[in-house]
């Protein structure tokens, strides 16, 4: 039977079919749906959200060492967080097969950088596979687990946004129970003290040699002979684009096993074709290795390394063809940036924050990064998960030392706080900067589409669990000045900020209100109630001052002709933020 | 690759383009085509511009549609039709919903919603305007707008021989099936051939 699956769904199916017993991840676009789909196989696979990617990889490593097939999944920047265990687990090797899925995001659709994680395979000296559609994504999970066990290596499966989120046909199979391998204590392998590490270092090099031999013979790397004037070496979705551009006018060496590369096979292929192109998204990972061994090829000299590829970009780069298209006048088209939703609990707090002078606002990764957009403009920096708190500390220390009046407010979400904000806050408490840390606790992992986290009371597979108590954690880290507020109440938000900024010690404000899109749990309903009614503008009273518009609510619209504001009742949930800012009380709540 | 057809559905997060794309792909798969479908998640969910791309034929390679490659552009929102116009193949069709969703810069009064969108689209390509929102409201639920547009798309691509009703049944809640099927049929009827 065939099904239309995204690459992420196919990886979940592949993990189930290949007998994976344990899977763990931290959500991150474009990887999130891998674990969400694995979680459906409750009886067969233990699937968990970890607080961060390092933990996810380590738990999967533990399951592997104890003999189970395991999988960890994360977006590409997550592998940076997990790099520490990755490099040493690469020395230790596996027991049950272990796959690390890295979902890269060429084009930065939902990411802060465009890193090419194939280099991690080379850097950590482990095997790598790269599927180019959903069928391959499913099949390669099984292949990767077998390679992992045969060569005693974790395997990196590198996918990209278009593999993750594109659907294609997949042949569905059944689960192959492989069971758990016995665990036998082996400190010369798994206990990486320096004496062990030095021995394993040698094994790692032997393993790369063996994997190179495998790469030359595996069916994951295959040739499709057509016209030989042009030869294309390609991997991942780049292969599909190359087929689209050249069709039968070129021959292909399709690489599915991309580290270590099958250099002999590539050299042989190169010797039989005229011009050799390397088609790969982002960095010249394959091309550099071919150039290093003297295989003449054309890659990044023509194919862009910045942004994602498309068939038309590739056609232009390699054939000089501009595909005719309908000409568009884009001058009138207005940008459509993502916005904080109508009723978002972050809005009111950001509105108050945006009014404070001499403030540096260090932001973080999540929906609240949208607080930096027009018209709120409440953000100075955002670099990575958890950095709001620690960067803010650095700013405050220098501001204080140099007699600058700048104060810092660090803004971080609940899930991001659990991910890596906690250690940053420990630093703040330990090294005493009087920064204000705001934990925007919307009771869910919002931006990636509502995943449970340690604060929500449920696990990935729906089990009720311990709720991490954020105020208690903050207190335990060494922060004494803590306030928990309702961010929809602007007076409360304003007062909390004034209080925190007046202190001569580190403080934490926790804004506690669920994401407006969250499906409320019973506990949420009890604590927060339901949204009833909407806000409306009395246009006779509205003076067109646009102060409500400065909250950036998408339900509010300013009509330039009438100079009045109106509220879209289908979007409004009646959060009353606009009502509180209106200077002439033109907004009221109806339908309560 | 000449037999491969490319369908581009564009709109704003929350308009139901993804469901329409899913029903379309499943129907095409059941009809024996190789199908690939692509969508972008993430930031698009917060009211951003969204696209859903479906390609089908005997053998499909690329899951995404490059500029100048869409046989039909179905815009669930008017300004989005303009944004994605370059992706249309010369001679391709446009089906555009007579529906405006002002974006952030327009809401705050910093920019104006483009004028004469329909006229400028008509000047570029074979354009059909569908009052999908009105049709959906008459049927009884404004949210079935996506099925009206999907119906128009099916007609526009000459795919009415495929049993999409079965796929709609498999993808919507049973209590909304009747309305959704009505919307789908009204969409087919709305496009003159």
List keywords for this structure.
heterodimer; A: 592 residues; alpha/beta; seven-stranded mixed sheet; five-stranded parallel sheet; 21 helices; globular; B: 193 residues; six-stranded mixed sheet; 8 helices; 6 strands; 23% strand
Distance between the termini of chain B: 26 Å
Helicity range of the residues of chain B? 25-40%
Shape of chain A: globular
The most extensive interface between chains reads:
A-B, 60 and 59 residues
Q: Approximately what portion of the residues of chain A adopt beta-strand conformation? A: 15-25%
**What kind of sheet is the major sheet of chain A?**
7 strands, mixed
Tell me the radius of gyration of chain B: 16 Å
Estimate the mean pLDDT confidence of chain B. 92
For the secondary structure, the number of strands of chain A is 22
Low-confidence stretches of chain B: none
Distance between the termini of chain A: 52 Å
- Principal-axis shape of chain B: globular
Oligomeric category? heterodimer
Number of E strands of chain B: 6
Uncertain spans of chain A: none
Instruction: Please give the order of strands in the largest beta sheet of chain A.
Output: 3-2-4-5-7-6-12
Task: Describe the secondary-structure layout.
The complex is a heterodimer of chains A (592) and B (193).
Chain A: E1 2-6, H1 7-17, E2 22-25, H2 33-38, E3 46-49, H3 53-65, E4 70-75, H4 76-81, H5 83-92, E5 98-104, H6 118-124, E6 127-129, H7 134-151, E7 155-160, H8 161-164, E8 166-171, H9 187-190, H10 194-217, E9 221-224, E10 230-235, H11 236-246, E11 251-255, E12 257-259, H12 263-272, E13 275-279, H13 285-292, H14 311-319, H15 345-354, E14 359-362, H16 387-401, E15 407-413, H17 414-431, E16 436-441, H18 470-477, E17 481-485, H19 490-502, E18 507-512, H20 522-528, E19 534-537, E20 556-559, E21 564-567, H21 577-581, E22 587-590
Parallel strand pairs in A: 2-3, 2-4, 4-5, 5-7, 6-7, 10-11, 10-13, 14-15, 15-16, 16-18, 17-18
Antiparallel strand pairs in A: 1-8, 6-12, 9-11, 19-22, 20-21
Chain B: E1 5-12, H1 17-30, E2 34-39, E3 49-57, E4 70-75, H2 78-83, E5 88-97, H3 104-107, H4 117-124, E6 126-130, H5 132-139, H6 145-156, H7 164-171, H8 177-190
Parallel strand pairs in B: 1-4, 4-5, 5-6
Antiparallel strand pairs in B: 1-3, 2-3
């Amino acid at each position: 039977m065939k099904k239309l699956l995204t690459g992420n769904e196919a990886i979940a199916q592949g993990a189930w079919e290949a007998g994976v017993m344990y899977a763990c991840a931290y959500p991150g676009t474009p990887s999130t749906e891998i674990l969400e789909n694995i979680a459906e196989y409750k009886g067969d696979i233990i699937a968990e959200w970890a607080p961060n990617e390092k933990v996810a990889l380590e738990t999967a490593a533990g399951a592997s060492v104890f003999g189970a097939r395991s999988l960890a999944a994360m977006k590409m920047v997550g592998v940076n967080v997990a790099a520490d265990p990755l490099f040493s687990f690469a020395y230790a090797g596996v027991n049950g097969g272990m796959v690390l899925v890295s979902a890269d995001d060429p084009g930065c659709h939902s990411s802060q950088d465009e890193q090419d994680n194939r280099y991690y395979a080379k850097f950590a000296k482990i095997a790598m596979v790269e599927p180019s559609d959903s069928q391959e994504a499913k099949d390669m999970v099984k292949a990767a687990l077998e390679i992992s066990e045969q060569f005693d290596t974790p395997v990196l499966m590198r996918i990209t946004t278009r593999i993750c989120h594109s659907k294609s046909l997949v042949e569905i199979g059944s689960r192959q129970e492989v069971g758990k391998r016995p665990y036998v204590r082996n400190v010369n392998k798994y206990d990486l003290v320096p004496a062990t590490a030095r021995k394993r270092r040698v094994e790692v090099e032997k393993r790369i040699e063996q994997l190179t031999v495998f790469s030359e013979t595996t069916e994951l790397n295959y040739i499709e002979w057509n016209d030989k004037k042009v030869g294309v070496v390609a991997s991942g979705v780049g292969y599909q684009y190359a087929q689209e551009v050249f069709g039968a006018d070129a021959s292909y060496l399709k690489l599915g096993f991309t580290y270590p590369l099958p250099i002999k096979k590539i050299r042989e292929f190169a010797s039989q074709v005229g011009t050799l192109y390397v088609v790969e998204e982002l960095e010249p990972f394959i091309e550099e290795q071919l150039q290093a061994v003297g295989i003449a090829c054309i890659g990044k000299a023509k194919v862009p390394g910045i942004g994602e590829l498309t068939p038309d970009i590739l056609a232009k780069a390699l054939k000089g063809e501009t595909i005719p298209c309908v000409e568009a006048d884009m001058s009138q088209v207005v940008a459509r940036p993502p916005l904080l939703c109508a009723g978002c609990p972050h809005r009111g707090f950001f509105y108050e924050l945006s009014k404070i002078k001499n403030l540096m606002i260090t932001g973080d990764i999540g929906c609240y990064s949208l607080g930096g957009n027009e018209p709120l403009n409440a953000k100075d920096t955002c670099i990575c998960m958890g950095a709001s708190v620690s960067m803010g500390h650095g700013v405050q220390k220098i501001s204080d030392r140099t007699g600058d009046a700048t104060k810092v407010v660090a803004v971080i979400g609940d899930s991001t706080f659990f991910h890596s904000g906690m250690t940053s806050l420990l630093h703040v408490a330990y090294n005493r900067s009087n920064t204000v840390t705001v934990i925007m606790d919307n009771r869910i992992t919002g931006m990636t589409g509502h995943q449970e986290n340690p604060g929500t009371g449920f696990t990935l597979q729906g089990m009720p669990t311990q709720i991490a108590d954020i105020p208690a954690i903050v207190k335990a880290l060494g922060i004494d000045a803590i306030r928990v507020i309702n961010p929809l109440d602007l007076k409360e938000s304003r007062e909390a900020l004034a209080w925190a900024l007046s202190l001569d010690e580190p403080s934490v404000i926790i804004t506690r209100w669920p994401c407006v899109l969250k499906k409320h749990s019973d506990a949420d309903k009890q604590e927060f109630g339901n949204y009833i009614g909407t806000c409306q503008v009395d246009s006779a009273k509205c003076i067109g001052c646009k102060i409500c518009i400065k909250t950036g609510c998408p339900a509010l619209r300013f009509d330039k002709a009438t100079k009045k504001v109106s509220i879209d009742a289908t979007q409004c949930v009646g959060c009353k933020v606009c009502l509180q800012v209106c200077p002439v009380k033109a907004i009221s709540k109806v339908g309560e | 690759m000449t037999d491969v057809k490319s369908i581009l559905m564009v709109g704003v997060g929350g308009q139901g383009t993804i469901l329409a794309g899913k029903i379309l792909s499943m129907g095409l798969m059941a009809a024996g085509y190789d199908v690939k479908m692509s969508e972008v998640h993430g930031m698009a969910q917060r009211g951003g511009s969204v696209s859903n791309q479906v390609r089908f034929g005997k053998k499909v390679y690329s899951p995404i549609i490059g500029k100048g490659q869409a046989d039909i552009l179905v815009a669930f929102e008017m300004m989005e039709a303009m944004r994605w116009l370059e992706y249309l193949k010369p001679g391709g069709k446009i089906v555009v919903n007579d529906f405006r969703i002002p974006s952030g810069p327009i809401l705050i009064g910093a920019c104006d919603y483009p004028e004469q969108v329909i006229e400028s689209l008509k000047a570029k390509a074979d354009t059909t305007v569908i009052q999908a929102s009105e049709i959906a409201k008459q049927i009884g639920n404004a949210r079935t707008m996506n099925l009206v547009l999907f119906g128009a798309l099916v007609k526009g691509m000459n795919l009415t021989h495929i049993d999409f009703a079965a796929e709609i049944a498999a993808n919507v809640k049973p209590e909304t099936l009747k309305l959704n099927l009505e919307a789908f049929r009204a969409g087919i009827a709305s496009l003159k051939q």
